[in-house]
Amino acid sequence: MIFLRYESWRSYLRYYPVTCLLLAANIIMFIVLAMNGGSTNHYALLKYGALTNIPELAGQGWRLFTSMFLHRGFDHLFSNSFAILVFAPPLERLLGWWRYALLYLGSGLVGNLISMGLHPVGADIHISVGASGAVYGVYGAFLYIALLQRHLMDESSRKTLYSLLIIGVIYSVLVPQINLAAHLGGLVGGFFIYGLIIRLLKRR
């Protein structure tokens, strides 16, 4: 089972440096929000980089990236950080740190672009934050492995992945505040970005 973590904290820090940096960035930005109005405060979220279709802010492309490190409420932070902590490490080891970072950020970007495409400027106000698009990009990469590189994933891990995806999609549909477009966009983005990386950016 590749999704079980056996490492000590010291080994975890050494083996998964990008994952640790992503977790640290999420936690630090949550603390920053908490000290500046709170993580559920729309003004604080917009100030620190939430993605939005508000006309005055919609053209600020940097929000496509900064919004990945902001979370609305502790439950949101915990669920995404737990997913990164537990499920992302095997992908970092498989791809290497910079390819993994490219896939993570690229998937989050794809998810955010699709989300904004469905919420154009002039529509009802839309404010989006969270690492979910990037997390689903990690799931998308594992889905590629489960379907097309079966020798890299054991049967137990495949079943765990399929269960995660089914539960995740159902949860995304049933809970109103969940950004389904970002989740599915990140999933598809991660699937295809992983396929491109293993072909165009092969490890030595």
UniProtKB/TrEMBL annotation:
GO terms for biological process: proteolysis. Coiled coil: none annotated. Residues 59-197 form the Peptidase S54 rhomboid domain. Keywords: Hydrolase, Membrane, Protease, Transmembrane, Transmembrane helix. It is a multi-pass membrane protein. Belongs to the peptidase S54 family. This is Rhomboid family intramembrane serine protease.
